[in-house]
Design goal:
There is one protein chain. The chain is mainly alpha-helical and about 130 residues long. It has a domain of about 90 residues. Helix content is about 55%, strand content about 5%. The chain has a two-stranded antiparallel ribbon. A hairpin with a 2-residue loop joins strand 1 and strand 2. It is extended and about 65 Å long.
Length: about 130
Amino acid sequence: MNVWAACVWGMGGGLVVEMLELYRAVRRAGGLPWRVDPDHEPHPPALLLAAFIRMGIGGVLAAAMASGGQIGGGLGALATGIAAPLLIDQLGQGGGPAQVGGRPAPTMNPPGGADEPVDAPLRAGDIDG
């Protein structure tokens, strides 16, 4: 996919999320949230700034993924824009071992060692944990 097209789709994904959040706020408040509760709800300039930031994050991440061949079409770029903050949070947590229920996730030892083919059948002891 073209990097610029992925960027636009990613920005669209970020905008979709912001629009859904505004929709939910309007439904919850029964009107424009900043008019119903002006002391506790963000006003339009802050909402616009948040939307532009979210669109930028989604666009940059989708473009970066497309440049590496990790996005094949518009839906993938849109989904990347929607999930961009979660993806960045996951990437920022470091590459430590995966956790399952507070314990390290099971790891798989290659059957028979590195010289045996990967598609060899599993035997007892091949999975730790």
